[in-house]
Amino acid sequence: MNRPGIHLVRSSERVDETDRLAERLGGRVGLEGVLEDLNREARPGPVPGLEVQWGFRWNEEDHRSRRWWPQGITTSADARPDELFDGRRVVLTSAYSKRVSGLDKGARITVVDVTDRERVHYRHVLLVEPYVDEHGRVDVRPVHVHAGGIVWHGDHLHVAGTRRGLSTFRLDDVVRVPGEGDPDRLGIDDDTVHGFGYRYLLPVRFGYDAVTDTGLEQMRYSFLSLDRSSTPQELVAGEYGRGSMTTRLVRYEIDPGSALLTADDDGTARPLLLEERGVGHTQGAVVVRGRWYLTTSAGPYRLGSVWAGTPGELVRHRFALPVGPEDITYWPSTDELWSLSEYPRHRYVFAMPRSRFD
Known about the structure:
By secondary structure, the chain is mainly beta. The chain has a single domain, classed as Tachylectin-2, Chain A (5 Propeller). The chain has helices at residues 15-24, 30-35, 60-64, 76-79; strands spanning 6-10, 40-41, 43-44, 54-57, 68-75, 90-97, 107-113, 121-132, 138-142, 150-153, 156-160, 165-170, 175-176, 186-188, 193-195, 200-212, 223-227, 234-238, 249-253, 268-269, 273-275, 282-288, 291-296, 303-309, 315-323, 325-331, 336-341, 348-353.
């Protein structure tokens, strides 16, 4: 059913701000630069959940962190038809920061090379908003979004921002922070760049602002995925809800030329479909050849589930996933569903055979 009253409106692009940031930091290095400088090693091994085929846990610091909470996942299979970036199989995940010691660091992505499943390396990249201050100097501030879902498609990365809509980044815009700076500060002084201790920053390019007509419940963009099996391809989004909250699922067409959302002349993207028969506690949803696959969580102590089928007729597969499953994506060539989990000491990235849920 169409719901034209729920839509996304593209904001203006931060061309000048991103260009000036790149100039100040010595030029763009892009995602290629990060992949050449991965500095952490994951631990492939067993992952809880009846349907998990393969996975890894983060290093000890990230596995236990009380600040950073993993949320979204996407891969080079979403980005390109050949499923590779720079000749590698790459996974991107997102996480948001909780306030620790009075400091909220916003959101970040993690770049993971899974080309060799026996040796998995990764690096974190901080998401930032570039701006020009009252003195005409470029500066940056944190991007405060929940980042509950992400989609890498073409050159862009879309990050879910709940009631705000989406924030969109261009991965070629990644810049490298020179020097060390203060790990508890983010900003640019005359002679020093502070990046909360991060070597790489990814500035936001523009947003898709969530707009809802009067009389309709505001759409919450809790998670995202890409439906590669549709023509044209589509962006899939939905709501986390519990109790009486809405659990809607929505689909937007992607323009094949730009790889961005298809929009009217005024920049408004309207959904092709809004489905109101979602499932409570959904953390992620992906569509493969018309069939839906949803992840649901059951708190910090019980294993998660996968729901498969069509809205209104979804079948639950209990105990399929580890505790605290989040976003979900699909890797066509291996016919695998990929997801990740969020709770400290239970943080994994993992793959499941899609056919197990058919």
